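Meet today's protein:

…
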Amino acid sequence: MRPLISFLMMLPAAAGAGEFSVSLAEAERGALEVSGDHRSASLAARAAEAGAEAAGSALYPRLALEGGLRYAAEVAEISMPAALGGARPLGDNWTYTIGPSAYWTLDGGGLRHAREAARRNAASRSASAEAARRGALLRARAAYFRLQLALEKVYLIGESLALSESQLRDTELAVRTGTRSRLDGIRARQETLDRRREMIRARSELAGALAELSLASGIEAPRSEEPPLDARLSGRDYARGALLLKAENYDDLLARLMPASEGGPGTPPSVRALEESSAAALASARLYRSEKLPRLVFSARTSLDYPNGPNLYSFVQGSAGLALNMPLFESGRLDEREKESRLTAEAASALRDEAARRSARDYYLALDEYRALLDEQAVNIEAAEEAGEAAGLAYAAYKSGGATWLEVESANLRALRARTDLASVNAGVLIKLAVLDSLK
């Protein structure tokens, strides 16, 4: 075993990959940029807004430039006496007309209902885009908090490993001087090996957490030959060749997200999207009902025309018109369309009520879990302090001959677990706050 360790120590040291720091705000911005769901929902919302503007323009007069050019091979003639010049053509082979025309449609409210349906649909798409935005942020936040937890575990194990190595050196010295048994030396070495094994696993978990954050936020960390490491452990021997990671302070993140636990649940965008969808369907139902009413189209036009009957010259022509349209029989098409829209509105309304109940349930469930984590954290803080003190006292008692190495090992392990539990609950608190924020 020792020759293998000596061989590994003779290998050339890998160059350090440097430090890499990422903040929660950077992760959130990146998540919104790389999220396909968010980008698609945002573009759909913008498209629906453009459609609503287009639907509203039908309420106002429309001005168009209209024209036409026509060639006729044969031109009709009118017979006239020779004294009056003989036969005379009733026009010319070429005829044209060009000029501006204005149209204004008045109906029984159908155009207004169409605009209302388009606006409600746009509002629904906008709420869906907000839901997608919150979903992307929640995924990025959860990945970031898991990365922060993985960093804290690596750091705590690193501190415990340093303590184990220090105690191992003391114990081996005592074994050589004959004041401690070889069994104590073996047990101290086994504890150090346990910490090293845990460090390898923790660094592997940290690499996985970093990859998950990269997927959720699009942030690419530099590649390194060794698994990443908490930047606070940069001076350790095993930090060579490793990427040193930094994350935001827990207290700063807690202060930022703490307001999410106040004020009670709101109306999340997923519920608003269904509510607007229901309103859009009702507006469509009113649209189909109004199509049964008369529709008037006013028109006005001025144009330059050629020819003026048998007179071969251009002239300005003004005209105005009024057209009436009213459906009399359509085999029930409008009635069925209205019925379809109303049923669609009822279906969306039922989904909205269900989504609202689920959202309120999820909010209060997350709030209860958050409060339970706070209560647990108060216990964890006290337990971690006492476990740390107990570990120090156990080792002091061992050095004075009043305790066995098994008691020292047990106290060290309990101290590490207590601090790890503390870090785990910290991450759990932040994740619950992120969930509460997404349900506001």
Summary: Confidence is low (pLDDT under 50) at residues 1-16. The two ends are 58 Å apart (CA to CA).
